Amino acid sequence: MLCKMTSKNQLTLPGEVLRNCPDQTYFDARWESGRIVLEPVVIRPLESPQLAAIRDKVGSLDITEDDLADIVAEARRAYGS
Question: How far is Cα 44 from Cα 26, in angstroms, rounded to an integer?
Answer without folding.
Answer: 11
